């Protein structure tokens, strides 16, 4: 199994996404657990102006915790397919928010390549027999 190139690729991508999401979550936690949520509410975006504050607070509190949990799941190789699916929904929510605000350069430069890499990670994980 370890000589299978799909297994090697799936492991590298899984670990990379796990480390990435743990560090991103830690960065948001360092803002203070409510700091990220507060930055969403007080930000100068269309979502901040048009959505009720309580929805932005819910999103702002859930995302860092969810990122940390899925990062740990990937690092420990537990429920990996579920973790990839959750990450895909997180990226899609970021893409929706950036598109809504008209920030298409961030979508094309950051989120879509990451979503494509996530698709490759999910595919290689599935094909490696895990």
Keywords summarizing the entry:
mainly alpha
What would you note in describing this structure?
This protein has 130 residues and is mainly alpha-helical. The protein is built from six helices and no strands. The longest helix has 26 residues, at 5-30. The model has no long low-confidence stretch (mean pLDDT 81).
Mean pLDDT: 81
User: What is the helix/strand order?
Assistant: HHHHHH
Structural class: mainly alpha
Global Rg: 16 Å
How much beta, percentage-wise?
Answer: under 5%
- Helical content band: over 70%
Please give the count of helices: 6
Main sheet summary = none
Global shape? globular
Describe, in short, the structure shown.
The chain is mainly alpha-helical and 130 residues long. It contains six helices and no strands.
What is the topology?
Blueprint: H1 5-30, H2 33-42, H3 46-50, H4 53-76, H5 80-101, H6 104-127
